[in-house]
Write a sequence for this structure.
């Protein structure tokens, strides 16, 4: 890596902010603000996972949506809008296997960034949709 | 809050209490140990000790925060503060365990700006309730007590003078659609959930009084058990199953996600106790529907909280909380699919 390009990296910035809040700021605070500080640290955790996982999530969702919608549209927001409208206006069936599977997978992908602990705590982490055993 | 403000609030309380007839407190009244309680998200709670001729009583003032009053802020799902007071008073008169209301504070234009009630014993902190060693006995019986108490609420008749709005499944779905439109949500998962619910709206029966936010944070319990239900701000007429479904939401199970009924028991324990107390039959699919709608409503609340903050021009210091609650949208959607796929009595 050419170090003069753009140091430090986004992840490194998250690292130092996390350390600073945890070890320098938090101990100085009263209980109420310490709680806020924990919330801030949680948000930094989300930011870290946005940096490291968002691209992969976007790629997976784009591929599935292109498949469902039969299009080569690249923009994820347009693909989401299209499927959202098709579901909303009854152009597709709710129990369409690929759609039922996609909305559940997408939700788990979002949670893997927003709050992965939530996924660990779910009673049954397997995505068993009865007859639809399709694996992506 | 400054010392002077504390004193003036204490004075207001003394004069309101002194001016009210038929109170159980006689003689010279004195307000002591006035302190803001670390509870209540949308309303302020102040606890204090009232000294009177017969001794001391622990009381609570509940009032809308001053900045919300100044801004004219209203909770779109909430009832007016005065209605909340009258409702709580009516419920306590009719045998529901909820703090007895003694008097109210008025603003200069005569509006009710806070009301004074008994302080129940115990805690409203779900973590204490669900984990503290000394609450083990309380935990063993609490779900049954909650079922019996909420059944009482659901059979309480309201006098004509007490109007709360009717909010059924269809109108809740309508409000969710409005929120989604307002913030231009284009989310296939949300649409899937919305349609799943729209296709399963239970037949509407005659609407009953519903608490509207029935969960551990809005009840008080001590080591012996339930001492009362609090916070009637979201009360409305609707389907009683709404309260049962909401009580089971994953988001309020805290350290016990494995126990759907408030982190205390299984759904069957709750539904069985409710059937026994109410003398009605519960249709499990309707509870599942309301639990799923509860999850989507919670998702909608996260969206509104986040959206109205970030849509506002000047960013203020609440942003950390609003950003965090915005991301809880994903948890609520996770709840929704868990309810659809894995729900069992």
């Amino acid at each position: 890596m050419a170090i003069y390009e753009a140091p430090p990296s986004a992840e490194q910035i998250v690292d130092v902010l996390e350390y600073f809040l945890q070890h320098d700021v938090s101990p100085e605070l009263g209980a109420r603000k310490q709680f806020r500080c924990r919330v801030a640290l949680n948000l930094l955790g989300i930011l870290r996972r946005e940096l490291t996982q968002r691209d992969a999530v976007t790629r997976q969702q784009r591929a599935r949506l292109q498949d469902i919608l039969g299009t080569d549209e690249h923009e994820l927001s347009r693909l989401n809008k299209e499927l959202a409208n098709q579901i909303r206006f009854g152009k597709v069936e709710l129990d369409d296997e690929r759609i039922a599977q996609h909305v559940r997978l997408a939700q788990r992908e979002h949670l893997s960034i927003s709050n992965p602990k939530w996924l660990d705590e779910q009673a049954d982490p397997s995505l068993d949709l009865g007859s639809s055993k399709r694996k992506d | 809050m400054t010392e002077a403000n504390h004193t003036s609030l204490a004075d207001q309380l003394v004069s309101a209490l002194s001016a009210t007839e038929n109170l159980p407190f006689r003689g010279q009244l004195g307000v002591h140990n006035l302190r803001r309680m670390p509870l209540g998200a949308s309303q302020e709670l102040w606890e204090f000790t009232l000294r009177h001729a017969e001794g001391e009583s622990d009381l609570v003032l509940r009032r809308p925060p001053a900045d919300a009053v100044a801004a004219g802020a209203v909770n779109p799902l909430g009832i007016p503060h005065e209605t909340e007071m009258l409702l709580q008073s009516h419920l306590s008169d009719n045998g529901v365990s909820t703090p007895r209301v003694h008097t109210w504070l008025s603003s200069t234009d005569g509006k009710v700006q806070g009301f004074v009630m008994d302080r129940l014993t115990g805690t409203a902190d779900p973590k204490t309730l669900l984990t503290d060693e000394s609450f083990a006995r309380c935990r063993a019986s609490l779900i049954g007590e909650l079922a019996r108490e909420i059944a009482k609420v659901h059979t309480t008749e309201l006098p004509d003078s007490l109007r709360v709005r009717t909010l059924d499944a269809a109108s809740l779905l309508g409000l969710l659609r409005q929120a989604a439109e307002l913030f231009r949500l284009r989310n296939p998962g949300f649409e899937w959930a919305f349609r799943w619910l729209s296709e399963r709206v239970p037949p509407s029966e005659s609407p009953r009084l519903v608490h509207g936010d029935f969960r551990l944070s809005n009840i008080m319990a001590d080591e012996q058990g339930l001492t009362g239900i609090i916070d009637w701000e979201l009360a409305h007429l609707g389907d009683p199953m709404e309260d049962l479904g909401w009580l089971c939401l994953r988001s309020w199970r805290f350290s016990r996600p494995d126990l759907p009924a408030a982190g205390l028991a299984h759904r069957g324990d709750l539904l069985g106790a409710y059937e026994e107390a109410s003398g009605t039959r519960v249709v499990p699919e309707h509870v599942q529907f309301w639990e799923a709608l509860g999850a989507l409503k919670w998702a909608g609340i996260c969206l509104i909280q986040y959206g109205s903050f970030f849509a506002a021009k000047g960013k203020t210091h609440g942003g950390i909380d609003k950003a965090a609650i915005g991301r809880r949208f994903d948890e609520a959607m996770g709840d929704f699919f868990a309810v659809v796929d894995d729900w069992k009595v």
Remarks:
- Chain A is about 70% helix and 0% strand.
- The mean pLDDT of chain A is 87.
- The interface with chain B takes residues 36, 39-40, 42-43, 46, 77, 80-81, 83-85, 87-88, 90, 94, 99-100, 102-104, 106-108, 110-111, 113-115, 118-119, 121-124, 128-129 of chain A (CB under 8 Å).
